[in-house]
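Subject line: Sequence and fold of a protein, written as structure tokens
Body of memo: The sequence and its backbone structure tokens, given next.
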Amino acid sequence: MTLKIHIDEGAVPPYEQVRAQISAQARSGELPVGYRLPTVRGLAESLGLAANTVAKAYRALETDGVIETRGRNGTFVAAAGAAAERELAAAARSYAERAHRLGTGREAALTAVREALRAAYGE
């Protein structure tokens, strides 16, 4: 198993392509928990990107709980499934509480979520 990333020149920023591809491979199990990722510089060099571009992707992945950095030992795929589910549940709970405090009805709150998901997923 190896990390496979392909960068397409286009509307999607390179850091987002790196983030999305690593995230998808980690969540699918193609990159197993504990898989050691290349260094920021190493991956940047192999992809022909600036180190800051890869660093930005790694920071986003770490924030999302997909990867974890262990100092000088490197960066590894984290056990993200459970962490991602907990974070998603917390975000949903926070949204629901906020919508309720604003006096928004259930259907209006669900409509707002559907619209946001449609925008986020490009549908």
User: Anything to note?
Assistant: Strands lie at 36-37, 67-69, 75-77. Helices lie at 14-28, 40-47, 51-63, 80-101, 106-120. The chain has a mean pLDDT of 90.
